[in-house]
Design goal:
The protein is mainly β and 175 residues long. The protein is built from 2 helices and 8 strands; from the N terminus they run αβββββββαβ. A hairpin with a 2-residue loop joins strand 4 and strand 5.
Length: 175
């Protein structure tokens, strides 16, 4: 397995959102929302054209987990994602699995990274926002410190930032 595509994908994620060494919530018992399952096409910002590869794939992995393929690079990056609630806030925690080439080599002590996002689903549109690193720093290393900081800012409208919008892909069958 080559590490260049993995590093490229992780750098894209670093630019897009905050990566944490510890999970925000260790347990995941919140049921998934079946409405999220499907293929989602990224809606370009500022009138740019959408590319076919910019598709987010969300599959049901279990009653409380999704398998997500994020299109940040040509190979895609795979996550185990699960709904969580903390302080009355609903969001999704995502743990990096790897690429089509397998799991990344995190070295001797680096754990698999986590991300946290919120989502809004309205008809055939999905808006995903990443936990704002200005409010909940990626320098926080434990679940306890992440939770404390998250709860401190849970009512802030800026808790989640950098929206990415997707539209459900509806495949048309032949006649």
């Amino acid at each position: 397995m080559t590490t260049v595509p993995i590093i490229t994908a992780l750098l894209a994620l670093l630019l897009a959102g905050c990566i944490y060494e510890a999970p925000l919530v260790a347990e995941h018992t919140v049921p998934i929302e079946p409405e999220l399952v499907g293929v989602w096409q990224m809606v370009p910002k500022n009138g740019a054209n959408s590319k076919p590869g910019e598709r987010l794939l969300i599959l049901k992995l279990s009653e409380t987990e999704y398998l997500v393929r994020n299109p940040h690079n040509e190979d895609g990056l795979y996550f185990r994602a699960y709904p969580i609630k903390l302080g009355g806030k609903s969001c999704v925690q995502m743990e990096v699995i790897g690429t089509k080439d397998g799991a990344p080599d995190w070295g001797d002590h680096k754990p698999s990274p986590f991300m946290v996002a919120s989502f809004e689903l309205a008809e055939d549109n999905l808006v995903i926002r990443i936990l704002n690193r200005k409010l909940v720093s990626e320098d926080l290393k434990t679940t306890a410190t992440l939770q404390e900081t998250f709860l401190k800012h849970k009512d802030s409208e800026e808790l989640f930032a950098d929206p990415a919008e997707y539209r459900r892909v509806v495949e048309r069958g032949g006649d």
